[in-house]
Structure formats: structure tokens, C-alpha cells
Amino acid sequence: QVQLVESGGGSVQAGGSLRVSCTVSGFTSSTNCMGWFRQAPGKEREGVAAIYTGGDSTYYGDSVKGRITISQDKAKNTVYLQMNSLKPEDSAMYYCAAAYALKCDRWKFSSYFGIWGQGTQVNVFP
Q1: Cα 50 to the chain's mean position, in Å?
Q2: Residue from 54, 39, 48, 107 nearest 80 by CA
């Protein structure tokens, strides 16, 4: 019923910025924890950020803290991931995920999220 669609990926030079979006459709009332993950070829899926849409709590992975901001536009049912000062190691497929939860305390565990988008590719060139 709930569907996530990512957009905004692309190719940028190192040091540049990019904003990816995740639009939620369908039944959204119970999907209060929204997360962003990324996965590069040969690497495990990594939690980037999460937001508790029922409140104002945000969470960030240590590797991206200070460079990435997660936010939401409730009117548009959209969650954004603003990425600045991008590095080549940020290159990955970025996935949006949703969880039926009251908190995002376990957001770094991908199994916590039951709904996933198809991903949007981000490539950062040196």
C-alpha cells in the first residue's frame, strides 16, 4: 500500500551539493520513521540519516554528520536529504526506507525498515 519513490540523484564533482527526495504515497499514517541508506558496489548497506516524522528527532551516521541534513515537507509527504561537500566515497545507490515505529532508535539496522524505494544513484567524481 505504501510506496516510496526517490528522485534527485545524479553526478557531481567532489565538493558539490545534491539533494535527493523521497515521496511517500499510500497509507502514511503509521510510517513515522523515515531513513536514508546507501550502498556502493561490494559494500554493505549503510545508514545515512533518519527522521522521526511524528516529531522533530533526526539521526545521522558518523561519516556524514555535518555534511548532510535530513528534513521533511509534511504537506508534500516528502523527505529530503541535502548533501553538501560531497566526496567520492559518498558515491552509492541511495535508498529511502520507512518503518512502522514510534521511534527511530534502531534506525541503523536496515531490517528495522519494512518498506523501501527503488533507489537513486549518486556519483561523485574527484
Answers
A1: 7
A2: 48
Helix (H, G, I), strand (E, B) or coil at 90: helix
Each residue's pLDDT tens digit, 51-76: 998 887 999 999 888 999 999 998 89
For all residues of the chain together, what is the average pLDDT? 93
Using CA atoms, how far apart are residues 110 and 4, in angstroms rounded to an integer?
Answer: 15
Q: Which residues pair with 80 in a beta bridge?
A: 21, 71
DSSP 112: G
User: Quick check: 20 pLDDT over 70?
Assistant: yes
CA distance readout (Å), 25 to 5, 6, 115, 123: 8, 12, 12, 27
The C-alpha atoms of residue 105 and residue 52 are separated, in whole angstroms, by 10
